[in-house]
Structures
1.
Amino acid sequence: MEIEAPSALSPGITPPQRIALGDLVVRRWEPLDLLPRFAALTASFEHLHSWMEWAAEPITLEQQREFGAAMAASWPSASGSFNYGIFDRAEAVLGAIGIHDRVGPRTLEIGYWCHVDHTGRGVITRSAAELTRIALALPGVDRVEIHCDAANTRSAAVAQRLGYRLERIAPRPKLAPAESGQGMWWVKTAE
Ligand SMILES: CC(C)(COP(=O)(O)OP(=O)(O)OC[C@H]1O[C@@H](n2cnc3c(N)ncnc32)[C@H](O)[C@@H]1OP(=O)(O)O)[C@@H](O)C(=O)NCCC(=O)NCCS
């Protein structure tokens, strides 16, 4: 039986649903984002397939409809995630980022993916910097983690660029084709 990690956030404590970040907007997914999100995921499939467990098979519209419904239903989602899209001023989907309350007491996790056509511009680093700051300011939270496979150098570079400390490298299940089976746990704590 899987034992659930205790959550960090008390009921009613949530990060904002919309964050303005210069030329970027990081906001909770809305129902109308279904088709743009599906298009972004479809265009980025090969890039995501290598690293994301949920991209084992081509993304389907039906799965995305279900994801969108789950996102619309509650904040956080039933699994304790605050999932945001990252948009430019024209509302194009540049990527996604989430704060996940699934690690344990006082700790939140951040995860992300970038549209393949928008990598290398700091979109994810800038969004993750702001969500790290917001997460560490939430009551009851003093630690944020980024988990990635040791072979995922682009993901590790985001954590490193933001001043996360590499706390450990340890075996973890290999869930996507490019993964090595060695995980990295990057950690940032409140000052
Ligand atoms: C991991 C992933 C999100 C990283 O994307 P990325 O494009 O490298 O990250 P960013 O958007 O932060 O861009 C960083 C680059 O922009 C540059 N940059 C430009 N302007 C910047 C700014 N204002 N701030 C920060 N970086 C900036 C950085 O120097 C860096 O340059 P480099 O490519 O020469 O190293 C992407 O590779 C991806 O989607 N991978 C597949 C999914 C995945 O692995 N997710 C993580 C699972 S753990």
2.
Amino acid sequence: MHRMTWLAVFIVTVLVDSAGGASEQELRVGVSAVDITPPVGYRMSGYFIERVGTAVHDPLYAKALVLAQGDTRAVLVVCDLVGVPADVSSRARTAIAAKTGIPVAHIAVTATHTHTGPLYFGAMRQSLHDLAVAKDGKDPRESIDYPATLAEKIAEAAVRAAASARPATLDAGSVRQEPTLSFNRRYLMKDGSVKTNPPQKPGLADIVRPVGPIDPDVGVVLVRDGDGDKVTAGLTVFAMHQDTTGGTEFSADFAYYLERSLREAFGPDFISIFGIGTCGDINHCDLSAERRRKAAEIGPMLAATVRAAVPKLRRVEAVELAVRSTTVDVPLQSYPADRVEQAKKDLPLIGKGQLPFLKEVEAYKIVDLRQRKGPTTPLEVQAIRISREVAIVTLPGEIFVEFGLAIKRASPFKTTLIIELANDNPAYIPTKQAFAEGGYETVNSRIAPGGGEMLTEAAIELLKSLGGN
Ligand SMILES: [Zn+2]
């Protein structure tokens, strides 16, 4: 049994505030997209085997949305990537701040969690890279310094969006997706255990029920030019894993098809920004169905929901832009030295069918944890108030849906959009209950039980401090 220790210390270290105040001042919005597709031949992330990108199905983008009112500005960058590590996001945010004057705390750099993007950070990337260098003296899979290029391109997207900001009108709201698209992927089994993604068949007979909920809300913010004639861009937030493509071609997953479908409605220049909701335990696998839906079906389904929502969205009449950010020192899991040594020895065996899957997951986790130099890790939570009715929250990691639902319930805002995988990639953020139940996400989590509850509390406090109606 491994020993886990943690400090139950909850410290709010930074509280950066800039109340917009000047609600009379007009809203300006800038949007831009910069291609971040890696070269063909670069490794792909998403699974615990070495996979190499053989082609580009659709380009990956860093898409930036800049909101500005008076002197207050907020930046949301969404990247078609599995995650964004802290060193890349901090480099990008520092560059954006230096070039635009927008405070770092007002900038969120997030990922869409596509499982067909590059593998460019973490213990698995390091291990495969080291093996390649040991064999050939160099790593033929990494023909460019992708993290450095990425940080520059994220900054470029934000700087361009800031420079292009012009008067705009927003429509916002939240609508319900038919609950046949997303599923809680953790199931109580007849033997009393909880399993993530149990085998579809013949295991079905062993399943009692899913142990958690889904979040069927689709949050939408549409950007209209000037006084509202033309829709130029849109933010869509939905909680479901972007792992519906597979294969070896780089792709933004269903977010690509969402944009393609929305362009049929809003024109070929429309930019769709997909924010991934709190989907740590949510995916598209319907265990009662014969087959799983793929990205090409899911994107248009989500787009149909967004299009049907358009007449129901509310015009954001009184913009009161404000941003707050807080950093929570979240307790980490801890392993004794002998377990760390064993994990390091196990790394070269991963993906070769020599270790049980969860042992592979745990070995990478243990090695990854060393980078964070415990016992706690600083994780940032941000809240952007657009008006007294609409706010956006960003959180790091793959947040369990229960937390997203709790934040929405407690939020004083009528519409609260919650986007995960922001600014850092501490893997899964399960609930205390899920840690007690076990399963894949708890093994693939760096934080100690209680960390997710702390982030949730911090998000709720930020929202309350920004007020609602
Ligand atoms: Zn995931």
